[in-house]
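MODEL INPUT / OUTPUT PAIR
PAIR INDEX: 1
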Amino acid sequence: MPNVVHVRRYRPTDAESLVAMWHEVLPSSQPWNDPQTALARKVRQQDDLIFVAEKKAEVVGAVIAGYDGVRGWIYGLAVMPNHRKGGIGRLLIREAEAALQALGCPKVNLQVRSTNSEVLEFYRRCGYELEDRSSLGRVLSSVPNDQTPQSNSQCHEL
């Protein structure tokens, strides 16, 4: 069965293939999104929520999920361009959801750029819905240790 896709948990030997795939599929100029660094951090924290899709012993997709005890997250999903539209992304999402549910996770969230209509539609077809939320972020790694931002009283007001 040459066209069978097998989804399994991440193994350390997958690192090189995953990093190469992430560079090809999800290029980013942001240093905190460097695939090699991000994967190494994730493996140290929670490697049991990384799943890989293989076809003929070739890595063709992967999903990275997380669970903090309150909510699950899909941090990243990638499928090689020549293997898209064949259900691999959905298989990976379902595998991540099953693993999160087994951990007692009640809800899964993910983020997609608002301009990425194709990916938004993919997640809608997988059962995800847009929620009325704003996503805020703050880069911590660019703040030098000796230049910690001063406390802002507005940050303490609730």
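PAIR INDEX: 2
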Amino acid sequence: MSEPFLGEIRAWPLTWTVEGWAPCDGRLLAIAQYTALFSLLGTTFGGDGRTTFGLPNLSGRMPVGQGRGPGLTLRRVGETGGVSDVTLSQPEIPPHTHSVHAVDSNAAETAPGPDVVLAKTPAGRATKPLYDIPDSYTLMNAQSVSNTGGNQAHENRQPYLMLNYQIALQGIYPPRS
């Protein structure tokens, strides 16, 4: 394998760090010890710029190319974004309806099931029975169906494969083109 460029990042299918490389885990390094690498990275990935600078942190993140694609937002080196969980709000959910079927007869069943629907509660009974086996359905007024949902976040990840990203601490100083 040829000598890497200083600051080059490679993905490795190993759990350990190769000699002369460091994990891309956001750690801070001493400028005095890695002057050449600091001259390339600066404080783009953290550090105070006086005694320390940070390495890129790819732990649990995926790299994204810098620049602006057609119809996309400009992305700069060192910028981070995205979230691992998302909770949809009402404006983000496609328009849809929920229909509720019912019968206009007195209820005779006390438990829900595959063949029963909501029915009128017989006079004098506050709670049960609530269901009936219908001969025909009546669609309830849409205003009688309330909002539902738990407002819980869901995972927002594309399929992935974990690799160990490492950055070269030594190597050829990259020439500008």
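PAIR 2 NOTE: The mean pLDDT is 85.
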